[in-house]
Amino acid sequence: MRRSRRRTREGCEISPLGARGAVDKPSDEGRDRLFSAALFVLALLPRLYVAIAWAREPVWDGHYYDFGARRIAEGLGYSDDVVVGGQRIWHPWCHYPVGYSGFLAIFYRLFGAGPATAPVVNAVTGALVAVLVHRLARYATTKNRARAAGLLCALDPGLIIYAALVMTEPLAALGLVAAGWLVARDAKEKPLRGALLAGLTLGLATLVRPQSLLCAPALGLFTLGDGTLRTKLKKGLVTAGLALATAVLVVVPWTARNCRVMDGCAFVSTNAGWNLAIGASPHATGRFETLRASDGCKVVTGQVQQDQCWRDEGLRWITNDPIRWLSLVPKKLGHTFDHESFPMGYLGEANPAAWPEPRKATGRAVLTAVHVVLLALAALGLVASPLGRLPLRARLTQIAALLAVVGVVLHGISADAHPFWPLALLIVLFGALPLPGAPARNASVGYLVFAVATVALTHAVFFGEDRYHVVITPVLCLLAALVFRPSRALAAPAAAAVDVPHRPDQV
């Protein structure tokens, strides 16, 4: 039976049967490559300015990332020196993930460890994130919306300012978006290559941010393809399994190093138990709090033993009072999603004279406003426009979803604590539930929603800080570009126009 196709307003084609196969390469490849190149320059210029003009000596966690990178660049490995009996002794590390320090060490070795090296590298990394958001968005939506997603990422003030911070989030975001793009690009013609490359990328991202590995199962969405449910699941599981196995193999040599030189084995780093205890201790507030020996781990001999001790203490505190631990979840999510203030605090700590409190307050207000708008638009990107000839049930459902987003925003503005974190949960709910009248959702959108869910879940379990949402700010930019799409119901043969990519992978 021959499948007829309709052209949309964007010049795309869609099969009335749903086009549920793997991703096809979008058209206009040459023009899109030219746009990506221009986007890189547009994103790079403001980041370079910030990197050169605002960066100072790294502070907070950035101090340790920079120090670790210097040691690796000097050939001393991920380590420091301790003084025992008047002698300096080499002391290995793995408390912090090694990936970001190892990445910086490459450039420290090539260009020296000057104060501008890491910020300039961050600027280039951030510009590449914007480009890859555009490249991935081409498999999620129309040409113009994909370009809008790239522009949102290129011009987001929080991501621009992050170039001056020696922190892991932009590099982790690069790995997250790149893995999705690689598997989307190869899903139809070379799915095994896509899975391998995505797994390699996700493995490197795991060395930067261990919870990146949680996104591996969502890579299977890109290759579900056509056929019976069993066939589609088989294809998806092969992709997800191959990507996961590849990612783990990338990490295993570092795990073996930890087993060899540390006081025990650690997959990537030794802060998971520590973070669990911070979010579960009797004096937990939902955000970072300093743990002291008096809190439970008084005698430890190494980083692995210390982490295991705090893990056991955290589990004990959760078991003893699970209701209190669960009651902290809204606070943890609030500290993660309600505001964006970490970049201003970092800059103020690194250069107090240049960042007095009024200037930092203005910066926090601007960054928070942009972040909240992105969160709201990302949620609306999964809600269909109520306009058009929709069935009553579909129309009412989408109106209710729209009102839910508006209600959360209005409540967040008016309430004293300004709780905007429910918007992140709405993104996950709208992306996961088969809501009547919803806009088309393909594998790229599913992968992005899954990434948001992993961040929300991780920090609901451990603790929250606003810098942790930066890794999915590019994801929010892409989802925000989907706002005001028509309902999927309008993709019926009688519909005049549908806002979907070229032959998308509907799931």
Automatic annotation (TrEMBL):
Going by the UniProt record, its keywords in alphabetical order are: Cell membrane, Glycosyltransferase, Membrane, Transferase, Transmembrane, Transmembrane helix
Q: What membrane topology is annotated for this entry?
A: Multi-pass membrane protein
Can you cite an annotated GO cellular component?
plasma membrane
TM region(s), chain numbering = 34-55, 116-137, 236-254, 365-384, 396-414, 420-438, 445-462, 468-484
User: What species was this sequence derived from?
Assistant: Polyangium fumosum
The protein's name in its UniProt record: Glycosyltransferase RgtA/B/C/D-like domain-containing protein
Q: Name one GO biological process term.
A: lipopolysaccharide biosynthetic process
Q: Which Pfam families match?
A: PMT_2 (PF13231)
Q: Which residues form the Glycosyltransferase RgtA/B/C/D-like domain?
A: 99-254
Q: Which GO terms describe its molecular function?
A: pentosyltransferase activity
Q: Where in the cell is it found?
A: Cell membrane
